[in-house]
């Protein structure tokens, strides 16, 4: 009897996690398709394949549900696999980062996630701040730390590495991100990304690179 109770205790969290995952996946699709204001708990329940009663067991309202999705996005994107090896040269690392960053922010669904957070940030400032700090600023800070390492190695001359990291990130997005996020253009092609990132790296190193 004790062993049976232990088995029940072990499996219940797994079942709970699976159901929560099911709800979050359904809710994410509804939010991305309809936006925050257009989404309803009933629509989310249908998309998730659960009853409204089950949905309310996990989340009291769509505000809490949306917060959970942003939190998950923050954790996932904050741990994105950008390679910032301090021993590698700046041209290589910046080029790889730029392409990887555009793949994140211009991926199918990615623009919608950012649009949705932007739309709700005024009403839910904690959500907006969390997304900014955990996804956007966290990435800039990691890039800034890499740039500081290259400054220490004598390859770059930068007074404010956080500013320089922000500048490079924005240069990578030039002509790519805004047309995509406003749905004026589809996700950029591989060739276009290569062209824009190459230009960004060249401009960055022309300004901050140490002349030998």
Automatic annotation (TrEMBL):
<dbReference type="Pfam" id="PF00440">
    <property type="entry name" value="TetR_N"/>
</dbReference>
<protein>
    <submittedName>
        <fullName>TetR/AcrR family transcriptional regulator</fullName>
    </submittedName>
</protein>
<feature type="DNA-binding region" description="H-T-H motif">
    <location>
        <begin position="40"/>
        <end position="59"/>
    </location>
</feature>
<dbReference type="InterPro" id="IPR009057">
    <property type="entry name" value="Homeodomain-like_sf"/>
</dbReference>
<dbReference type="InterPro" id="IPR001647">
    <property type="entry name" value="HTH_TetR"/>
</dbReference>
<dbReference type="Pfam" id="PF14246">
    <property type="entry name" value="TetR_C_7"/>
</dbReference>
<dbReference type="InterPro" id="IPR050109">
    <property type="entry name" value="HTH-type_TetR-like_transc_reg"/>
</dbReference>
<dbReference type="InterPro" id="IPR039536">
    <property type="entry name" value="TetR_C_Proteobacteria"/>
</dbReference>
<dbReference type="InterPro" id="IPR023772">
    <property type="entry name" value="DNA-bd_HTH_TetR-type_CS"/>
</dbReference>
<keyword id="KW-0238">DNA-binding</keyword>
<dbReference type="InterPro" id="IPR036271">
    <property type="entry name" value="Tet_transcr_reg_TetR-rel_C_sf"/>
</dbReference>
<feature type="domain" description="HTH tetR-type">
    <location>
        <begin position="17"/>
        <end position="77"/>
    </location>
</feature>
């Amino acid at each position: 009897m004790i062993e049976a109770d232990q088995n029940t205790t072990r499996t219940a969290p797994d079942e709970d996690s699976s159901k929560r995952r099911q709800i979050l996946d359904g809710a994410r699709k509804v939010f991305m398709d309809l936006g925050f204001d257009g989404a309803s708990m009933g629509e989310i329940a249908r998309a998730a394949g659960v009853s409204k009663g089950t949905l309310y067991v996990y989340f009291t309202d769509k505000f809490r549900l949306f917060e959970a999705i942003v939190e998950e996005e923050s954790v996932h994107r904050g741990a994105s696999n950008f390679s910032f090896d301090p021993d590698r040269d700046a041209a290589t690392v910046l080029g790889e980062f730029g392409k990887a960053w555009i793949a994140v922010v211009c991926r199918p669904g990615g623009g919608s996630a950012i649009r949705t957070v932007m739309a709700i940030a005024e009403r839910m400032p904690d959500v907006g701040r969390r997304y900014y700090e955990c996804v956007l600023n966290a990435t800039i800070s990691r890039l800034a730390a890499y740039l500081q390492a290259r400054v220490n190695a004598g390859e770059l001359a930068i007074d404010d590495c956080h500013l320089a990291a922000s500048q490079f990130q924005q240069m990578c997005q030039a002509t790519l991100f805004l047309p995509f996020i406003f749905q004026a253009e589809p996700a950029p092609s591989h060739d276009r990304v290569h062209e824009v990132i190459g230009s960004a790296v060249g401009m960055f190193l022309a300004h901050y690179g140490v002349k030998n």
